[in-house]
Each structure stands twice: as C-alpha cells, then as structure tokens.
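SAMPLE LOG
Freezer: B-3
Tube label: C17
Construct: single chain, 322 aa
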Amino acid sequence: MLETSARLLRVLSLLQSPREWTGAQLAERLGVTTRTVRNDIERLRALGYPVTASSGPRGGYRLGSGSSLPPLLLDDEEAIAVVVGLRTAAGGGVAGIEESSQRALTKLEQVLPSRLRHRVNILQEATATLHTPGPAVAPDVLTAIAGAIRDRERLRFDYESSDGTHSLRLAQPRLLVHTRGRWYLAAWDDDQQDWRTFRADRISPRIPNGARFTPRELPAGGILAHVERSVGSAVWRYRATATVYAPAAEVAAKLPRWVVVEPIDDHSCLTHVGSDNPQMLAFWLGALGVDFEINDAPELVESLQTLAHRYLRAVSADRGSG
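STRUCTURE (predicted):
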C-alpha cells in the first residue's frame, strides 16, 4: 500500500487525465478503500486543488480549473513527448513561439530525472527537423480566430490576396489547420456562399466579431479534405480537365488526394488536374496507364503530341540499332 504522500501524488496524477474517476476505480487502482480515497480527495482540496465531483451512475472525480497551476505529474513517455514537442514547436509558424518554447523547455529539462534527460539527449542528437519556410502568424491573430470558432461568431477581417489586393471579408470560421509550414482558416464565405480556405498570415481580424451562426453541413469529404484540396491545388500554375476511361476510385487512388475526380459512369470519370506547366501534366496523365481525352486545354494537347513523337522516335532509334 502506498504511503500517504506518495498516494496523494498518484491520485493527483490520475485526476490530471481527461476523464472522470469513480471512487471505486481510484480505490482499485491504488489498492486502498473508497473511504481512504475520499479522505485523499479532501486532503487535495485542502491543499488548494479544485477536485470536483459529480453524482450519478456515471459520475466521479475530476481535477477542475483553478487559480494556480498545479504540478504536472508526467510519466516517462509523456515527459519525452512534451520535450520533443517543444523542440519542434519553432516550426509551427507562430511568431515568438521559438523563444517561448525554449523557456518552457529549459524549465522542464531542469526537473527531468537523469534517466529521462539521457533519453531525451540521445533523441535530440540523433534527429533533425527540416522546417518548411513560411510566414509567421501573430499569436493574437490565431487566438482571435480560435475564439470566433469556439463562440460560433462570424469573423470580420481584412484579407490580402496573393496578388496584393485587399478586401473586407465576413465568414463563418470552422477550423484552423496547420500544414506545409502555414496556418489556414477553413470557413464558409458569406459573400461567396461557398467554403473557402484563407491564409491566416493574411488575415487581420476586426473587432468585435459579427453575429453568431448555426454551423452548416461540412463540405464533401470533411473539412480537412477541403483544406487539403484547396491548399494542394492553389500551387497549380496550369489547370486542365480530362475524361479518363477508368473507374473514378481507380483513378483517384493514383493521384494526390487534393485532385478532384468526378465519376461519369462505372467506367469513366472527369478529372480536374493541374501542374506547373503542361509538359509536366502531360507526363503525369500518361503515367495513369489508362486512356484519356483532354477537354479544354489546347496547350496540353500540344504537349502530349510532342511527348508522343519523342517516345516514337525513341522506339524507332532502338529498333534501328538492333
């Protein structure tokens, strides 16, 4: 049986997990009686920890929010996860986070047991992070957007587009997404009446927010799939539509997830593709390994003809040398 002081720390550690514990569950975990658990809970409360209790068959104890930060009791794997997260946080695209992460990391490493400090140092020496360069977002911008998402309030903001033009936007914010070294806001654009993805570093929120909104149905495939499609296709300099003579599921499996593939029937589909130039797009369409037709891109047709002649010459040269 654990001594009282050690047991109190164990109870505090269990209560810091995101769940409720019944008295019976805590008693079983600690090897004590439920009366001892009740006494330990009262001792924690006397020390200033806001332990809440709910009644009913599903009720139990939980550590609530308090006016001071209690000591965080982490097991070995949790401590290593926090250290690794802090070491890589500088690549999160938030202005000033590198300095804040370093301060927090210094405080944590000072209290790590030597066995954990050794494991963390080994991991640090054997790994490296390649951060994707991207513009940083001010923390107050992220918190303003996050607050509007939480409160389901329309977000009013000035937005700078990729060509440098500015506009006043009104949108229903749903999710902040970090990918490819940048922060993006997925939202329903009230003016465009459609789902849009906005670069967070180009957003300047206006206070106060707009009226509250009722969340609408998410775009097909979910909000993350929408952001992935938007971000992936945004880098295309050249776009085209092709009819591909193969089932949509088969074609989609060979293409990046942000490429839109629309089934026509069981044996063909409409594929909206893009690339830096028509030559590269011609190569990738040929790599699908199925027949296709170009619908609306004469430059792509020309590139396909050039590529076809080049392949034919290569075959002819090979036969001639044989």
